[in-house]
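Fill in residues.
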């Protein structure tokens, strides 16, 4: 996104024109940015040659999944619905990894029938359930065990997944006992050690610590893992202050870790592929004057983008038309939903805005539409993608009649 004569453009198209043509709220994606992000990850990890499994939970749009599939990416899924969508998008079953703590009997059976690459189990109970189903089907199933490495990702507490108090994975003692158990199993084939320590990580230190923990446990287990699934979590620069995750450094750390190991790396990136590809375009309904701040009441709400309400996530907000005026009071950007947490940001120094102006909320490609809802009986927004000079509608705006 760049300004051209003070007007915001996305891949050369005037965003204000898009807002007027398609109406708001409107999710707008850049195919060019998606392409760049995938190539950036592939190029930085070239020497490792990992299997890159896109985290479908970050964005479940079938047309986006079809575009991602064209780059030979696999999928990381956490439900039967995500698995069905990945397969429908044409992603090969042998490139799909099924994660998550609460897979049901129905989900496990479906995954087995579709012959996906791996089911990453997260408890002894789950392993026993997979074994029971495999026995009945007279099949040998490839599984992984998700280790909880007790590593603090130094990220938002609500999206931390690798500490001992988190619900994910198993501790070292349980992991080693499960390895011993699986060595004797006739129906389960232990192929993978899996970890995922959290999301929106911008520092290499947690990953370095995680790799050291894994290295020790692999030695203790005395087992050769065909795959080591390092999860995802690589962050993006939400505040646009050039705070970017160093992929090259992470790649070098993994290369050192892989010495004397004959294992293939699996990555499960979501945000780092799709996060900064989209903006949410929204219109100012009213400006409500307050004592210490003015409320910018938008036609977008927490049902369209819940991240700020859910865990105080920050998204940069920018005007579609720049001007040189500045406000005296802070602006609080809020939605019309009847919840105090229905707000996007409070910004101290912003240009002067008027009712009916448009603004853009940046970097909403990950966990934007995938976490959207119909709260307050609000229809979900339209999604479009800019690909070259073409505008594609990739998800229609919901109609109120559909919700009745």
């Amino acid at each position: 996104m760049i300004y051209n004569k003070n007007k915001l453009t996305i891949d050369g198209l005037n965003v204000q024109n898009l807002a007027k043509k398609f109406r708001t709220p409107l999710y707008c994606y850049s195919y060019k940015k998606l392409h760049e992000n995938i190539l950036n990850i592939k190029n930085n990890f070239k020497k490792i040659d990992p299997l890159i499994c896109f985290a479908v939970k970050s964005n479940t749009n079938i047309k986006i999944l079809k575009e991602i599939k064209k780059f030979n990416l696999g999928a990381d899924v956490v439900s039967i619905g995500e698995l069905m969508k990945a397969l429908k998008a044409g992603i090969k079953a042998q490139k799909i990894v099924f994660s998550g703590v609460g897979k049901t009997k129905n989900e496990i059976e479906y995954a087995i029938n579709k012959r996906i690459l791996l089911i990453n189990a997260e408890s002894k109970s789950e392993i026993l359930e997979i074994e029971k189903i495999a026995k009945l089907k007279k099949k040998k199933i490839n599984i992984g065990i998700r280790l909880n490495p007790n590593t603090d990702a130094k990220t938002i507490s609500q999206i931390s997944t690798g500490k001992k108090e988190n619900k994910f994975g198993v501790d070292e003692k349980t992991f080693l006992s499960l390895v011993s158990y699986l060595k004797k199993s006739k129906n389960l084939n232990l192929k993978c050690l899996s970890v995922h320590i959290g999301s929106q990580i911008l520092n290499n230190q947690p990953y370095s610590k995680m790799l050291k923990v894994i290295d020790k446990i692999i030695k203790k287990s005395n087992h050769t893992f065909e795959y080591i699934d390092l999860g995802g979590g690589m962050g993006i620069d939400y505040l646009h202050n050039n705070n970017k995750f160093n992929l090259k450094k992470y790649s070098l750390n993994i290369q050192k870790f892989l010495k004397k190991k004959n294992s293939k790396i699996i990555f499960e990136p979501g945000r780092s592929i799709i996060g900064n590809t989209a903006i949410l375009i929204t219109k100012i309904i009213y400006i409500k004057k307050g004592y210490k701040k003015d409320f910018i009441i938008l036609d977008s709400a927490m049902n369209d983008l819940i991240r700020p309400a859910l865990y105080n996530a920050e998204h940069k907000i920018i005007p579609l038309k720049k001007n040189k005026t500045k406000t005296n009071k802070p602006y609080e950007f809020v939605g019309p939903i009847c919840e105090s947490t229905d707000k996007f940001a409070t910004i101290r120094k912003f240009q002067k805005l008027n009712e009916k102006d448009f603004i853009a909320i940046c970097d909403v490609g990950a966990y934007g539409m995938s976490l959207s809802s119909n709260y307050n009986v609000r229809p979900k927004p339209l999604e479009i993608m800019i690909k070259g000079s073409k505008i594609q509608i990739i998800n229609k705006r919901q109609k109120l009649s559909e919700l009745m």
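The mean pLDDT is 93.
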